[in-house]
Amino acid sequence: MTSIVIAALAALAVYGVTLYNRLVKTRQMTEEGWSGIDVQLKRRADLIPNLVDSVKGYVGHERATLEQVTSLRAQIGKVPQGDVAERGKLEGLLSGAIGRLLAVAESYPDLKANQTFLKLQESLGELENEIQMARRYYNGAVRNLNVMVESIPSNLIAGPFGFVKREYFEIGDEADRAVPKVSF
Q1: Could you tell me which of 60, 64, 14, 32 has the C-alpha nearest to residue 140?
Q2: pTM
Q3: What pLDDT, on a 0 to 100 scale, did the predictor assign at position 103?
Q4: What whole-number distance in Å separates Cα of residue 181 and Cα of residue 7?
């Protein structure tokens, strides 16, 4: 009888360790995902001054748009590392400002033909795709962690060992979610 109890306790301990290790793995995947987003956003932030400088010479009277892009970039640099919600909100605003900057550039044929601007615009497009892929990976890892933190029996291990739910990296501006109107 005692050997059965000992075997059951040992099996329960092995199961607990397995759940703990899955939680650790899932948390690490979430951190890896955030790191991937952070790297891509840093690349975009490094590209912005070059984009602004190349546009500045052509569109001097569009100063407000240029200043907004520069200001948002500076604000993002001040957001604490773990504040995903604030970072997501500001990054969404920055994406909108960059979109307006590129829309302004459409009005200047000389700028649209400038090779430096074209290369920067192409690089920005590639970066936006990479940011989107990194965000999907991160949000998937967050989903997996959150499911484990909330589900029985893994929540019995998660709570005492300090595993907590994470926030998704989402678009902060509802206007960015709207379906664009297309007319012919």
Answers
A1: 32
A2: 0.81
A3: 85
A4: 65
**Side-chain-side CA neighbours of residue 3 (13 Å):** 0
pLDDT of residue 172: 62
First to last CA, the chain: 80
Total domains present in the chain: 1
DSSP 180: P
pLDDT confidence of residue 60? 67
Residue 183 lies in a domain: no
Q: How many residues does the chain have?
A: 184
Cα→Cα distances 111→39, 92, 97, Å:
29, 25, 18
**Spatial separation of the C-alpha atoms in residues 102 and 90, rounded to whole Å:** 18
Residue where the block lists tokens 């100063």:
63
Neighbour count for residue 140 (Cβ, 10 Å): 14
Q: Is residue 50 part of a domain?
A: yes
pLDDT below 50 — which residues of the chain?
176-184
The CATH number linked to 151 is 1.20.1440.20
pLDDT (0 to 100) of residue 170: 85
How many C-beta atoms surround the C-beta of residue 6 within 10 A?
Answer: 10
Rounded distance between C-alpha atoms, residue 128 and residue 124, angstroms: 6
CA distance 168 to 85: 8
Q: Which domain holds residue 50?
A: 2-169
